[in-house]
Structure formats: structure tokens, C-alpha cells
Amino acid sequence: GSVHYGCGAPRPSKSSSPAASVHLEELESAAVGIRTHSFPLNRSSAVEDALRSDESVGSSLKCVAFDRYYAEEAYSFLVRGARPDALRVLDMQDFHALRLGRMEVVRRWDDGRRHDGAATTSSMMMSEELMDELVRFVPSPLDPRSNAETRGEAKVRDVLLRELAAVHRSDLTLVCSPREHRLLTDAYGIPPSKLCLAPFFASEHPPAYDPAVPAERRFESRRDFAVLGGFRHPPNVDSALWLKREVWPRIRSLLPDAVVHVWGAYPPRRAMQLHDEREGFLVRGRLDDLEGELSRRRVLLAPLRYGAGIKGKIVDAFRCGLPVATTPVGAEGTFLSPGGGRTAEPPEMSSRSMADASAHDRAADDDDDRGWGGLVASTPSALASSAASLHSDSSLWSACQGNARRILRALFDRATNLRRTEDAVREAMRDLEGRRERDVAGAVLWHQRNRSSEYFSRWIELKET
């Protein structure tokens, strides 16, 4: 069979977007063999023509995947009309409403701190109490009982309902995080048969775990801290600001010569203004050699106040043998159960070390005796202490690196996770008619009275033609 990639945007040029252009060329190479299609924005006829054309996508199109809920809103009705027998799969990436809702919780705490007169120049709040609220947070689909709902809270509710509608309309949804899988089934009543847990498909970077290199030498050969995260993603911007204002000064008080390399594409001016060579805070911009950089550094810092899903930066760090200092939000979805499999972390998880409960209070999950690939903390002081310990204690560092490798193999093994996802897709294909027959909620959302996203897309198209 063949794979086709369609995008509702002009094909990037080498001059305007060289990285994206190279990526497309790699996809289209003989080694990969993916056919790409660029469609004019808001031109459904071009998409429909491609879907109906055997020459374009072939006569046996079996499955169409949508990259996040808004792609499903824009294109699923076209696929349903042109290729009704194709399986429609939604790739959630992360739970957008959960991420946005947590962002609103943080903003509310920050605003309350300012209004109470307790704000410093940073006004960036974090405490055990706040982190507990963030970890427990569940977006509500209900209208508020008062008129006190903020614009941000209204957006969270709107995105939640749109995401849930996209899940219901789709035949199968790929969910990357066990916590979000549990939220969809337990809090929102999504049938488990419509969901597939599909986390990262990762493999080790071999030099990071070379058995010929003693653990002590692996530790000594690395230096400095690293931070990863594209600056078009709001949690990463917030993370860099919080790190510079609240966490990094505390790390420097413990390690006066510490240096951190902050990597991320599209840094805004306020991020570049954080660069301070005297303080060892180096904002680098786009990173082209991920594995090379992570293989040189000793600790990854991921001071996320909010976010959702499994964090790719942490999986990449584990791939490259790099222990991580992060928050409970940052570490979500990366814990082992006592049997060595995946577990959803309990809301009451500790914000301290996962590596050594006796040395760092209690473990994140009282049932987890396997340890985590780094240290986890909520407050600036605790996070700075954890980062400094990882950077200076070779025994702790080596133990966390071993834990990271074990987690990588147990939870993110490429072959295992690909096989699970492929099995789920093939099973859905085999019973597609039966699945749709049993999916009453999905059928209801395809009724014309409940297809506002389709008609909105068509209205935009008419307005622009």
C-alpha cells in the first residue's frame, strides 16, 4: 500500500522554510515513499477531487488520519462524503482542553497573587498546593452557574466540547498519555473501544548507553544543563520565563558556575532578552543536532508549570541517556508500575524525587519501586535542589540514567508501540461497519443539525471565493 500526506497550506519553499522543505523531500524520497499533497486553504473541491481520484490517492484508500481536532473539523466531512468506507482516525497529540485549562489555573493564581499584593516583579506562582490543583484538574463541559466565567475559561470549555465532538465523530482516536486516556473514558464517557493508547515510538541513541563506557566516565564526559522547547508553544515560553526568574537563581546559588543552554525554534524577543552570559543563561534558538546536544549535557531541565500529554523533550532526554529535573506536570505519563508496565500517576503524587525515596522524602508513586529517570519537584527551591543534586552526584545521576533506560524500553519501545497501534487500526478496519452501527453518539454528531463545524468551514470557503 501507499501513504499520502495532505496539507491545507502551500508547499514550503527552501528559501522561506528550509527545514520544512527538507522534511518533505525526505518523506517523498524512495526510502520512505510518501506522496504529499498541498491543497489551497479553504478550497474543499481540491480535497474532494484528490479523494475521489484513483490516480491521486488510489482506489483502495483504507484509512485517513487527522492531525488534531481542528484538522478533523476541517476535513472529516469531506472524507466521509468522498470515501465513506475509509477508517477515520483522530490523532489527539495532547489533550488541548486540559493544557489550556491548566494554563487558566496558573493565570488565576498569578493574578490572585498580584491582587493580594504579594506579587514580586515576576508574579509567577508555584507551590505544592497549586501543583496539586493542576494535576487534579479536569475541564468541565458544563455552562457555569454564574456570570463569573472569564474569556479564557470559556475558551477552555469550547475547545473541550470541540475535542470531544471530534473524538465521537472519528472511528478511532490515538491518545498519547495514559492520564488523558483515563480522563476520556472515566470523566467524559468515551467508549474504550474508540481509543488507542499510542505514546511515542522511540529507540535508544546507542552511544548514550555504550556498555564499554563506565558509568562514572559517562557522567564526567557531560557538562551543563539543557532546556528544550519550541517557543510557539505557550507552556515552553512560560517555562523559560519561570526558570530564569525563579529557578535558575536558586540553582546558581547552589552551583555558582552552572550553565544552561536554552534551545527552541522561533524565540520571541522576551525570550532572547533572557540571555545572560554572566549568569550562565544562554538562549541558543533552533537546535539542529538534537542527539549531539543532549549527549553532551548532564541534566535536562523541564520546569513546566502547565501542559498536557507526554513531553517529547523528556522522552528525547531518556533516549540520549540524560536524566531530567522537572515538575509533576512535566513527568506525566512516564512512570512504571511495580510490574514494569505503564501506570497513571495518582493525583496525590509527591513532587519530590522519584529516584531515591529514602534520600528525597517519598516516591512519586508509593507503589512504584522501580524509580524514575530523574527528579520531580513542584516549587522553585525544590526543583533547584533536585537539579543541583543530579548535576553533582554521580551515583544519583547514574541511577536515574538506568531508570530512564528502563522506562524507555518499557513504555516507549518503537516496535511494541507501533505494533499496538497497527493492531488497533486493523481491528477497527475489520469491524468498521459494526463499530459505526454501535456508535450512536457518533451518528448523532453526524446529523446535519450537529455539523456546525462543517457548515462553518463551507461558509468561510464561500466568503473567500
Automatic annotation (TrEMBL):
Organism: Odontella aurita
Protein name, per record: Glycosyltransferase
Phylogenetic classification of the source organism: Eukaryota, Sar, Stramenopiles, Ochrophyta, Bacillariophyta
Chain intervals for the UniProt region annotation (Disordered): 333-371
